[in-house]
Amino acid sequence: MESGRRALLRTTGLCVRIGGVSIVEDVSLEVREGEFLVIIGPNGAGKTTLFNVLTGIVRPSSGTVMFGSRDITHAPPYVRARLGLGRTFQTSAVFAGLSVLENASLAARAYLGGSGALWRLAQRDHGALERARHALTLVGLEGRAHTIAATLSHGEKRKLDLAILLCGEPKVALLDEPTAGMAMEDVPEMMRVIQRIQREHGTTILMVEHRMDLILGLADRLAVMHHGALLAIDTPERVIASATVQSAYLGDPL
Ligand SMILES: Nc1ncnc2c1ncn2[C@@H]1O[C@H](COP(=O)(O)OP(=O)(O)OP(=O)(O)O)[C@@H](O)[C@H]1O
Ligand SMILES: [Mg+2]
Predict the structure, then answer these.
(1) CATH number of the domain that 220 lies in?
(2) Total of domains in the chain
(3) In whole angstroms, what is the distance from residue 36 CA to residue 224 CA?
(4) 90 falls in which pLDDT band (50, 70, 90)?
(5) Measured at the alpha carbon of residue 149, what is the angle toward residues 144 and 151, in degrees to the nearest 5?
(6) Ligand 1 within 6 A of 219 CB?
(7) What residue numbers bound the domain in which 246 lies?
(8) Nearest Cα residue to atom 5 of ligand 1
(9) Of the candidates 1, 35, 65, 116, which lies 20 to 30 Å from 220 by C-alpha distance?
(10) Axis crossing angle, helix 118-139 with helix 187-199, rounded to the nearest 10
(11) For 3-40, what is each residue's pLDDT tens digit?
(12) Atom of ligand 1 nearest to the CA of 42
């Protein structure tokens, strides 16, 4: 990833303190347009909290969040989503009783919004269906469109989470451990799907992932969080070779 790419998302001096405890500590980070940036770090390092600040669920104690040239530090989550900041959660969140296509169409319809004349609503529904089908194809769920979500395998539910996210046309997708709890044999396919979303759909990816073997060959850059702070951010090769990272992880292998 060439360094000339513009920053799509940028944090400066971000801190989160809860009850006197520092959970995110002076994090300055930029996510460049089109890149695949992975955040690693041990349990409790503050990765999910950082995502919560980026998406507006948690207010930072200090620092700023910029989306392009816009300061979104105090913008509510729905404004950020409209600007193009999408996320999936560490646990799946689909409507269990609805079919795969219904789940995706609902997301697409919510994104397309609109109200008014019946013909316009019908047009929107048609657009939503198209968009939903396209997203399902991207994640490889087109053959499961009419399956009730509750009966999907865990891996398929995570793919549906991704399809729902894509229906909102995010510019940046924040993926919090998208392979969490997944059967090992489903993991490589999930990673291929995420790579396809970045390469073919042009979506910028910011992903939290624990498994180093999955990240190498995928990530353009790797960021390491430790005790709330950003310890390193560079190419995966350079981060792994970094003495700071090595010493922080001594006895706690990457
Ligand atoms: N609302 C909250 N109130 C108090 N403490 C919190 C809150 N949210 C997070 N924490 C604490 O902040 C720390 C960071 O949590 P966070 O979930 O961001 O870590 P993480 O890096 O995502 O960990 P994991 O790898 O386990 O998902 C943890 O010690 C957690 O207990
Ligand atoms: Mg987490």
Answers:
(1) 3.40.50.300
(2) 1
(3) 14
(4) low
(5) 85
(6) no
(7) 1-84+206-254
(8) 18
(9) 65
(10) 120
(11) 568 999 999 999 999 999 999 999 999 999 999 999 99
(12) 25
